[in-house]
Amino acid sequence: MKIGLYQSLPTDGDIEKGFSVVETSLVAAASAGAEMVVFPELFFPGYNRPDLHRNLAQPVDGDWITRLSELTRTVGCGLTIGWAEACNGKVYNAAICLDQHGHTLAHYRKIQLFGEMEKQSFTPGDAYQTFEWQGQKAALLICYDIEFPQHCRTLAQQGVTLIFVPTANPAGYEHVSRIFVPSRAAEMALTIVYANYCGTEQGLTYAGLSLIAGPDAAPLATAGSAETFLIAGLCTQTASESLTTQLSDYQEVQ
Predict the structure, then answer these.
(1) Does 253 fall in a domain?
(2) Which pick of 54, 109, 221, 232 has the fewest CB atoms within 10 Å?
(3) Residue 26: other Cβ atoms inside 10 A
């Protein structure tokens, strides 16, 4: 079972260029035998574009998701990607996971909004989304969510072993890729696919360092600071097969 991760330059509001990049990446992933590609946070219309979030946000049945669904079905490769979602007068920092047939596996709204820009642009989500993918129970989180161990613990308690994380982690926060993500994976016997941007967008420089971390904290694949396409075979180790015992051994103190 192979998965792709695309550490991309930001779209910065160029929607059509973004779709071209998605199509090219899906074709490359499918050719390499991958069954899913994970893209960064708010790929449409761009992360550091608060001027566009509300103006361009689309519903889950809008043109963006319709076109992405058609692409996954045509190419035969799944896609996880972030976008600005409009729903009932609110805007959410959302992610969607589509399978190789264009069907929606999960639609998630970011719970932990980071910084004033996100809090002004978006309404926080309030629910996890889990789904079955390639014999594993999977879930979506977005960027800052993964930095809270409570979310990983809750998902692990629900049987999740695989988490896809679109992110827009800026320079200066490299410890998230180097320490937090591997730690979250090892603590709860998870495989975490953490897809970040590189380059700059409207004055914001991204950290890159995308990675796929296995349940032993070891990276299955890592990126540096440049545009990178990663493909890795996923670990199928379960919590019961892992050296991790935190999930069963935790004692809560009142």
Answers:
(1) no
(2) 54
(3) 26
The active-site residue out of 35, 41, 147, 187 is: 41
Task: State the Cα–Cα distance between residues 3 and 1, nearest whole angstrom.
Answer: 7
| Beta bridge partner(s), residue 202 | none
- Asked whether residue 120 is domain-assigned, the answer is yes
41 is catalytic: yes
Q: Which one is catalytic: 77, 143, 152, 198?
A: 143
Active site residue 143: yes
Domain span at residue 225? 2-248
Counting beta carbons within 10 angstroms of the beta carbon of residue 240, is it exposed (0 to 12), middle (13 to 18) or buried (19 or more)? exposed
- State yes or no: is 97 an active-site residue: no
- Domain count along the chain: 1
Write down the catalytic residue from 85, 97, 110, 187.
Answer: 110
Whether residue 254 lies inside any domain: the answer is: no
134 within some domain: yes
